[in-house]
Amino acid sequence: MKEKRDSFAMITAQQPPFPNKIQRVMDCQTEEEETCEEQYDSENCTCSSKCASSTAESDSDSPVILKILQNWVPRVSHYFDKEHYTYVGHQIVIQESIEHFGAVVWPGALALSQYLESNQEQFNLKDKKVLEIGAGTGLVSIVACILGAYVTATDLPEVLENLSYNISRNTQNTNMHKPEVRKLVWGEGLNEDFPVSTHHYDFILATDVVYHHTALDPLLATMVYFCKPGTVLLWANKFRFSTDYEFLEKLGNIFNTTILAEFPESNVKLLKATVREN
């Protein structure tokens, strides 16, 4: 297990790869007076006994400042590629692989999973139609299923076998709506495979889909295609490169965007985007 963790840490640039629990920042500095982290002034500090709550709520339009804490659930296992998570009262077992970037759990998936768990009133997924693009290991889709959504999890063909395994293993023999796993290559065959007349989604979920690759324009086109009036796009991403911020700017030029939460220690931002009304 140690060898796996060490190699994975190299891939994620020293980002902890294991499941994490996201909580409101509690480590406000105390000197002459309490102040929040350097980039936020003291007026925005909300340190109190309620800081321990994992529910991300804010009285202002500013994004909630959260942090990712270690919450990996250790298990004795003969497999080095299975990790155990707990969300919404369910134990979730995820099989990973270092053969594909899409077959490991990245920080954005942990952030969005916990945010959905902690903000069910704000984003009620029960009986809603949810599409995840770039679903990877399926963790976020599984959490959405647990929360009562009709889920379609999509990714590249080479990722589908592991994605299907994880989703089937964690949703079978339950009262959840049966999720669907489908191939989706960004920007390709959208009208043929997902005709607008029969495919409308209440939520589009995406995590860590923006990094240093050549498919950013097709990704944006895919988001535009699926996001219709009434659709909410929730995108969580670890920001690493200048291209990540360029994508964010392009997204903001097309959609109404709001940063719901930031995770400074892991450089993750969680955004909400909706179609602009004419």
Summary, kept brief:
The chain has 278 residues and is an alpha/beta fold.
Can you tell me about this structure?
This protein is 26% helix and 26% strand. With 278 residues, the chain is of the alpha/beta class. A hairpin with a 3-residue loop joins strand 2 and strand 3 (34-35). Helix 2 packs parallel to helix 3 (139-146) and helix 3 (139-146) runs parallel beside helix 4. The longest helix has 15 residues, at 157-171.
Order of helix and strand elements from N to C terminus: HEEEEEEHEHEHEHEHEHEE
Helix content: 25-40%
Strand order of the largest sheet: 1-4-12-13-11-10-7-8-9
| Rounded average pLDDT | 78
> In terms of structural class, how would the helical and strand content be classed?
alpha/beta
> Quaternary status of these chains?
single chain
Q: Give the tally of β-strands.
A: 13
Biggest sheet: strands, sense, closure? 9 strands, mixed
Cα-atom radius of gyration: 18 Å
The global form is globular
Number of H/I helices: 7
- Which stretches are low in confidence, meaning pLDDT under 50 for 5 or more residues running? 1-59, 74-80
Strand-residue proportion: 25-35%
| Beginning-to-end CA distance, first to last residue | 54 Å
What's the structural blueprint in terms of helices and strands?
Elements: H1 2-11, E1 20-24, E2 29-30, E3 34-35, E4 64-70, E5 82-87, E6 90-95, H2 107-118, E7 129-133, H3 139-146, E8 150-155, H4 157-171, E9 180-183, H5 190-193, E10 203-207, H6 216-226, E11 232-238, H7 242-254, E12 255-263, E13 268-275
Parallel strand pairs: 4-12, 7-8, 7-10, 8-9, 10-11
Antiparallel strand pairs: 1-4, 2-3, 5-6, 11-13, 12-13
Helix pairs in contact: 2-3, 3-4
